[in-house]
Amino acid sequence: MNATAWTRRHVLTLSDFTPTEYDIVLQTAASFREVISRRTKKVPTLQGQVVTTMFFEPSTRTRSSFELAAKRLSADTLSFSPGTSSLTKGETLFDTAKTYLALGTNLMVVRHQQAGVPRAIAAELDRLGAGVGVLNAGDGQHEHPSQALLDLFSLCRSLDLRNPRRELLAGKKVAIVGDILHSRVARSNIWSLTACGAEVHLVAPPTLLPRWFAEIAPNVTVHWQLEPALERANFVMALRLQQERMGQHLLPSLREYHRTFGITRERLSGCDRDVKILHPGPMNRGVEIDSDLADDLQFSLIQDQVTSGVAVRMALLYLMGGTK
Ligand code: NCD
User: What predicted TM-score, i.e. pTM, was given to this entire model?
Assistant: First the structure.
């Protein structure tokens, strides 16, 4: 596999990602994962390039992960926060993007509460002939491609540490549990996991999981009860209840949710013996997942997701930085 086969300037969605692109990302991330385990963690790959993170919505791990990834590739980094910017003086989104373009930005990492904003910025930059790559770091309830790619990398790595590859997921059962309705992580994961041959089982109360999710892609099953979704599952991905996006009372109470859908040790008894747990974070301990289970390294890939996230984002910035 050769990184020169990469032609995508922007990464906005996984809905049209090809098997070759998944292979390139996984292989490139594997080599960066090796780089960041060395004593000297920095490579000169993006020296002289400028990576700008524009986050219009709160973030801990995604923003830090992209900034660290850019720094480890020796890029210069700029970071935009709406609260302290000229947006408060009435500047438009596109003018903000153009300002960062004039400052020499080569790659823009954009998170926004509205679906479609990263794509709109990418289209405007293309119209200007800027040659700048835009990476969607989470747009509303739409998609979060780099999260799903790091989840994919963690899953494959747990199956073969030395050679994490797409084929390992064929026929594996992945249960995604929680607030599917509001989750861009779930939507991106549906694309990547099904494209790699996994069977995706979505489970939540009906208020958080409309039936039509089963029609998004082949090999997606919808459940409104936890047990059949977890039965013989190889992986369980818990999602946060996104209360900030819930306009009305979609749940009786958090305690009731934990009682019926919370991931506990007892609930894992029906899963595959080697089941592994994921969570994109931020976690509500004791709601989506038992606190001690989240920290139990026999089961939990949650810390690995964060570490692997840096390698996967290095891979994406490196690949996108190479397209003209
Ligand atoms: C997710 C997000 O922001 O979409 N978190 C993340 O990026 N790691 C999920 C969430 O907010 O629950």
Answer: 0.96
